[in-house]
DNA sequence: TCATATT
């Protein structure tokens, strides 16, 4: 791919584009995402070669799978299978794609699988999309381990940890019992201090069992109190409970009504007008804001979402740059770089579809005028008219 | 006394 994450991150820091104060938080989120790059996740999940390290390959199929089949974790709750396919399809041809959902509620479980035709594309997807910020999440892209019963229910819940214990120290404590797939210490959202509870996911269930035997009711080195180690709650059971409790909720609390949405829109439009006041620069967005309030001729609205026109992309731009730029602002359902049929080079523009008006509006306000390389992007809702130069 | 990682 032509535009690397790190290039964009350095461009963001170059100072050529100064964000307005009100966009600071969003841009800070973007910078984090763009600077995170491909290698921000520290816990590896490569192909599980430990279990079949004999000289002759057990099964050529499973080894092939491990090179094309990816597991994608920490997906935004509202992301659909189609969006997952759209995102990963921008890298290469996909053999199959599955978003895992709760069997009962149908809710996304926040992870999925993408199987490429070409192992090179799988590798490229890890390098390109691992660490990508989507809404409030940072997705993780890694090779899927061959599916088997032995790797299920290998997740531990740990409580009573010393508040000073770091994630690294937690892993050190547990790593003697097996390969750790992922670990986490929960922190207070306000203070950021450890809540003394966390999770350890082992490669295999037997490793988790041994860790319980060895560490439950034991004091970690230097600790004054023993810790509790047990299997973590099964997430599917939890969603069933949520379903049950939902039955007892008043129905009108489940979805925000049109009034609430309109109120939100008013606040957002005021915010946008303020932003353009500060900029002292006319932008078509101000008109978009007003017309959408009046409910007439809504630009960019195509029923399926809000279509955004992105102009002045470089000839070597690709879809991933659009995901990187717009993903942090909210639900993106599709991106498209328009290319010349013969040269396959970008013709200088592309489109992004976002589900929610508010998020699309903030993305536009934030990214219009954004300098990408030596180009200043023009970002607006797509209009029906042909764009003139 | 628990966020969401094996189709």
Automatic annotation (TrEMBL):
InterPro entries tied to this protein: ELAD_HU_SF, Hud_Sxl_RNA, Nucleotide-bd_a/b_plait_sf, RBD_domain_sf, RRM_dom
Keyword Repeat: yes
RRM domain segment(s): 68-146, 154-234, 306-384
Single GO cellular component term: ribonucleoprotein complex
This protein's UniProt keywords: Repeat, RNA-binding
Annotated transmembrane regions: none
Region annotation (Disordered) ranges: 37-61
Entries under Gene3D superfamilies matching the protein: 3.30.70.330
One Gene Ontology term of the molecular function aspect: mRNA 3'-UTR binding
Family: Belongs to the RRM elav family.
NCBIfam families xrefs: ELAV_HUD_SF (TIGR01661)
Name of the featured protein: ELAV-like protein
Organism: Oryzias melastigma (Marine medaka)
